[in-house]
Amino acid sequence: MTALPAAADKKLGLVIDLDTCVGCQACVTSCKEWNTGGLPAPLTDLAPYEAGADGVWLNRVHAYEHEADGASRTVYFPRSCLHCETPACVTVCPTGASYKRAADGIVLVDADSCIGCKLCSWACPYGAREYDLDAGVMKKCTLCVDRIYNDTLEEADRVPACVAACPVGARHFGDLGDPASAASRLVEARGGAELMPEMGYRPVNRYLPPRPKAGGAAAAAPEALEPVAHDGAKGFLAWVDRVLAD
Predict the structure, then answer these.
(1) Strand ranges (E), 91-209
(2) CA distance 129 to 121
(3) Which of 115, 128, 189, 239 could bridge to 81 as Cys pair (CB 3.0-4.6 Å)?
(4) Among 112, 117, 134, 127, which Cα is nearest to 45's?
């Protein structure tokens, strides 16, 4: 089995704001676009133009209906590798293909060493591993390691593709091992949480919880508007008035 490196001070990861995410899938498609030509390439598509279309996606977004205090809301939940500090997917690997980098804590897969045994996917409680049926190897989020260290890119672009693509700023990237980093300060300010801490794998990524709705279920219903008088409206505007009033 594969040993873990000594704990490092640098812990690169994502901070995902569940209050802001609108489920647009921009992070999903940008991840696919970048990585299908990047380090884990190719990301296989299976029957993409048929009813049972599937394939390898390193980031997926799920939608849940959440109810609290009599009010409900749709919460979009992006899911990818959490780059755990003590990842079971690494220690269970029989060939060393799944490994954790000592320099920055990123968890990667060496496709040349992977034998496709799927032990890592069974060990991961977060469902973050994607088995490529065509290639016969396991694939996963790399935090776009071939992008974040790419000196040919502008510094502002040296972030994971999913972070760069998010139109509402729901995804953040940084060193969560540095309490002074912008990512760590955001987690502190918003009460960011790790997933399933009881498992003991210590995921680096953090999720910012949805903010409570103003007023909640106890908020009073707005008063009905007064009917619009139709006397002065003619033609199209009179029709619009009648439709809106009915």
Answers:
(1) 98-100, 107-109, 130-132, 137-139, 171-175, 206-208
(2) 5
(3) 128
(4) 134
Over residues 178-189, mean pLDDT: 97
Q: Which two structure tokens, joined as six digits, stand for 33?
A: 């676009």
Strands 45-46 and 54-55: what pairing? Answer: antiparallel
142-153 tens-digit pLDDT:
999 999 999 999
Question: Could you give the 3-state DSSP secondary structure of residue 140?
Answer: coil
Q: What share of the chain is helix, strand, coil (3-state, %, to 5)?
A: 25, 20, 55
Taking only the tens place, the pLDDT of each residue in 48-59 is: 888 888 889 999
Query: What's the chain's length in residues?
Result: 246
Nearest CA among 98, 177, 193 for reference residue 137: 98
Local structure of 54: helix, strand or coil: strand
Domains belonging to the chain, first-starting first, are 12-218 (3.30.70.20)
Residue 8's SS3 state is coil
In sequence order, the β-bridge partners of residue 77 are: 62
Please answer whether residues 182 and 73 qualify as being in contact, where contact means their C-beta atoms are separated by less than 8 angstroms: no
Strand partners, 138: 131
pTM for this predicted structure: 0.83
Under 8 Å between Cβ of 201 and 85: yes
DSSP letter for each residue of 67-89: EETTEEEEEEEEE-----SS-HH
Inter-residue contact 92 to 120 (CB < 8 Å): yes
Q: Report how far residue 141's alpha carbon sits from residue 108's, in angstroms, rounded to the nearest whole number.
A: 8
